[in-house]
Amino acid sequence: MSLIKSEAEIKQLREGGKILSSVLKKVAKQAKAGVTTNELNDLAERLILMAGGEPSFKGYGESNNPYPATLCTSVNDEIVHGIPSDYILQKGDIVSLDVGMKYPRENGLYTDMSVTVPIGKIDRSTKNLIKVTKQSLDIWLKNIKAGKNLNDIAKLVQNYIEINGFSVVRDLVGHGVGHDVHEEPQIPNYDSPHFDLELKEGMVLALEPMVCLGDYRIREKRDGWTYATLDGSLSAHFEHTIAVTKGGCVVITK
Ligand code: MF3
Ligand code: CO
Question: Which among 79, 100, 153, 250 is least buried, having the fewest CB atoms inside 10 angstroms?
Answer without folding.
Answer: 250
